[in-house]
Write a structure and sequence with these properties.
The protein is of the alpha/beta class. The protein contains 11 helices and 5 strands. Helix 6 crosses helix 7.
Length: 271
């Protein structure tokens, strides 16, 4: 198994480079991320196509990772409820070492292949669920254990990794391999690899939510009204869609709790 993510950077003597040279070098490396992600679209499409009918029947999407990969999974999962107005039990992120590991490294937590399945079992896993393992290297035991056990229980599995032909990819139904090349700082997968993972996670969940009817036109009509900015955004959506004056749009938004419900109410009155 090749480990591109651990390969030596093509830049030498970084400490001797100027700030401008460092920034331009990182930027040049970042330019390689989008083409790498683009090549994975057929696999992402395959995965989302499998997830949608499962979620419509009550299934959930689980992200499992360690370190940066785990944090990115939790980041994506935590943003879905406020953005699309779904429950926090639809997309769930798990990280080796638990919540403490979101802020600081938990030594050796990722080395236990059995621990991840024990964590997943707390959610009463079933065959409508999907487990996506995230690991730049593709060899993290915690992540491999999650998908291996899930697959043995008939649960759909996938992975997001940055090395080809990894142990992780060999243990899932749908491997997504974004090969971005060696990192600017050798082995620092929080850089290009992490960026690629974030883009792919965005694509998976945003496409899923659109397919689930949580977006109208191009707007987040089901977003939670958790602050003044979002209330103002929702008010403008209603003004644009229905032509209501601002005061009426805001009042209806706060009454019904979401743009979607205001639009549905207006549609029912028309009929």
């Amino acid at each position: 198994m090749s480990s591109i993510t651990e390969s030596s950077s093509s830049y030498n003597n970084l400490e001797k480079m100027s700030i401008r040279e460092l920034l331009e070098g990182m930027h040049n490396e970042d330019k390689k991320v989008l083409p790498a992600v683009g090549k994975t679209i057929p696999q992402i499409e395959k995965l989302v196509t499998e997830i949608v009918p499962r979620v419509k029947k009550g299934g959930r999407l689980f992200y499992v990772g360690a370190g940066t990969s785990g944090r990115l999974g939790i980041l994506d999962a935590s943003e879905i409820p406020p953005t699309f107005g779904v429950g926090y039990d639809l997309v769930i992120g798990l990280i080796a070492g638990g919540d403490l590991a979101i802020r600081r490294a938990v030594e050796s937590a990722e080395d236990d292949e059995n621990l991840s399945w024990l964590e997943l079992q707390k959610f009463n896993m079933n065959q409508l669920d999907t487990v996506v393992g995230i690991a730049a290297s593709g060899r993290t035991p915690f992540v491999i254990g999650a998908v291996k056990n899930a697959r043995e229980h008939g649960i759909l599995t996938a992975c997001i990794t940055n090395n080809p032909d990894s142990a992780l990819a060999q243990n899932v139904d749908i491997p997504i391999e974004a090969i971005v090349g060696p990192e600017f700082v050798t082995g620092s997968t929080r850089m290009k690899s992490g960026t690629a993972q974030k883009l792919i996670l965005n694509m998976i969940t945003t496409t899923l939510m659109i397919q689930m009817g949580r977006v109208k036109g191009n707007k987040m009509v089901n977003m939670q009204l958790t602050n003044k900015k979002l209330v103002e955004r929702g008010t403008r959506m209603i003004m644009d869609e229905l032509g209501y004056p601002e005061e009426q749009a805001r009042r209806l938004l706060l009454l019904h709790g979401s743009v979607q419900k205001v639009l549905e109410e207006a549609g029912q009155r028309k009929h």
